[in-house]
Amino acid sequence: MSAIASLPLDELLIQHSCVRDFIDSLGLEIQESAEPLGIWLDRLPDEDILDAGMERPQILAHAERLIQEVARMEDGSGAGVASLTLIGGRDKNGTPEQARISVRAGEVLCIVGPTGSGKSRLLADIECLAQGDTPTGRRILIDGAVPDEERRTVLDRKLVAQLSQNMNFVVDLGVRDFIGLHAQCRMVAEPEIMVERVIACANDLTGEKFGPETSVTQLSGGQTRALMIADAALLSASPVVLIDEIENAGVDRRRALELLIGGEKIVFISTHDPLLALRGDRRIVIRNGGIAGILETSPEERENLERIERVDATLMEIRERLRRGLRIESPVRWPQ
Amino acid sequence: MQLITVAGSPSVGKTSVILRVAELLGRQGLAVGVVKLDSLSTSDDQLYAQKGLPVAVGLAGSICPDHYFVSNIEDCLAWGQRQGLDLLFSESAGLCNRCSPHIQGVMAVCVVDALAGVHTPKKIGPMLRLADLAVITKGDIVSQVEREVFAYQVRLANPGARAFFCNGITGQGASDLAAAIARAAPTHSLEGQRLRFPMPAAVCPYCVGETAIGETHQRGNVKKMRFADQTEVTP
């Protein structure tokens, strides 16, 4: 008989709330008492056990594994990643890519190229930590080495988080409860404070503010993006974040990047937006499914970025006037 | 021959996942075949045939698909052996969340769908809890937060299983899954083997065609609901 069977219920349920949740999910009613778990199970009618869908020894073994698993999740807060290395494969014609790119934590790499050129494919290769097993033959190293299989497949502490364009919310929850659900499964010490921080950060990134009671399904595109970026920066376990276009979504792109960099993330963004592309440290140029080049952002480009930002601010002002129902009649003065 | 039982609710993507994995295993030189067990009708056998995979179909009709599965799985194994297969997938649809088609000593896979919502893993019974591998599909169309929460819930629902994200459309994640499946122990015979858990029970007049409603027709294995506003009634 396993050790857990002799644990009294009151001790067990107070110390391990996961066991209570598990027994609840079996449809069994359990109450704290001095009775050991094994005896309690033995006293249950066989019919209840049949309804629950697990035999008594299976229930005991499951509870034991569950306690171990939760302990492992609590202490394995996800070792950080210092660098990610991308080793080139081949493009659509089979021509080898001459590329080996190392990215450090806190660095932003942009991926640029025409529509359909293979930007999303590159993101997908990084997402699955490809080892020559995808159509491009690319390989990804973590801290200079091939990640072991366990690391590649541990699901809820995945190395890579992906914020894609075509995502949906399936649950119908308010923002606070939704992020709270995530905080709970990340086993954050003070979930309420963390949730408030994520919501405040998201509101900081978007022009249209939302409250904690707003249902996630009612958020606009920009608000959704802002919430997902704030969550990825503050709450996600993944040290690598992939973003598929943030332009046109009403998100403060500069602050979004600062937030992710501050979280010591390795960030890849697929983008056509000069404000983002020039803000990154380097950009990967994709052509015909392959990496055609890597450009480091030059001092001249950084200077231009400041000009482009001023132009963008002027445009934003015009948008804001439109929103408020005003006319755009005074001559537009572009900053120099 | 290796036997792999694959189960999951309707439309979660079992067929797509098997197709992706079978393609990878086939490339490694394994002869892979599929037995498709369904309720009323299926056209998935054509999808398998198109990929050149030997396929046999069983339709449970009015019988519980799980019961149909267990009374036919030995014959399916024999079919696979006659076809000279190295690896046989049995694909069966779990309809009631209480389904339990897994056999002791035979690698069991449960496919769950991230679109079903983060509370679903808790609601699925032995089909998920007693599986060796849990495969999560459609992860690409839900938010990153829901993906993480869903994976966490799957881990709580079956802390012993290895879990995988697998995209049935693009095949992303299929290679890790294929590697895990290829390590399954061989099954030479099922004679005397046991299910991991009893299947959902169903022996009452309605199982065999009764249509009339009323207390007098409720005989055999009948279970009544309990309502909070009524005091306990002794039968």
Summarize the structure.
The complex is a heterodimer of chains A (336) and B (235). Chain A is 43% helix and 14% strand.
Task: Characterise this structure.
- The complex is a heterodimer of chains A (336) and B (235).
- Helices cover 43% and strands 14% of the residues of chain A.
- By secondary structure, chain A is of the alpha/beta class.
- Among the domains of chain A are: 3-75, no CATH class; 104-118 and 155-297, P-loop containing nucleotide triphosphate hydrolases (Rossmann fold).
- In chain A, strands 5-6-7-3-8-9 form a 6-stranded mixed β-sheet, sandwiched between helices.
- In chain A, strand 8 and strand 9 form a beta hairpin.
- The longest helix of chain A has 25 residues, at 299-323.
- Chain A starts with 8 loop residues before the first helix and ends in a 13-residue tail after the last helix.
- Chain B is of the alpha/beta class and 235 residues long.
- Chain B has a single domain, classed as P-loop containing nucleotide triphosphate hydrolases (Rossmann fold).
- Chain B has 7 helices and 7 strands, in the order βαβαβαββααβαβα.
- Chain B has helices spanning 14-27, 44-50, 65-82, 120-123, 126-129, 144-157, 174-182, and strands at 2-8, 32-38, 55-59, 87-93, 107-113, 133-137, 162-165.
- Chain B has a 7-stranded parallel β-sheet, with helices on both faces.
- In chain B, helix 1 (14-27) crosses helix 7.
- The termini of chain B are far apart.
- Chain A: Keywords: ATP-binding, Nucleotide-binding, Transport.
- Chain A: One of its GO terms (molecular function) is ATP binding.
- Chain A: Belongs to the ABC transporter superfamily.
- Chain A: InterPro entries: AAA+_ATPase, ABC_transporter-like_ATP-bd, P-loop_NTPase.
- Chain A: Residues 71-314 form the ABC transporter domain.
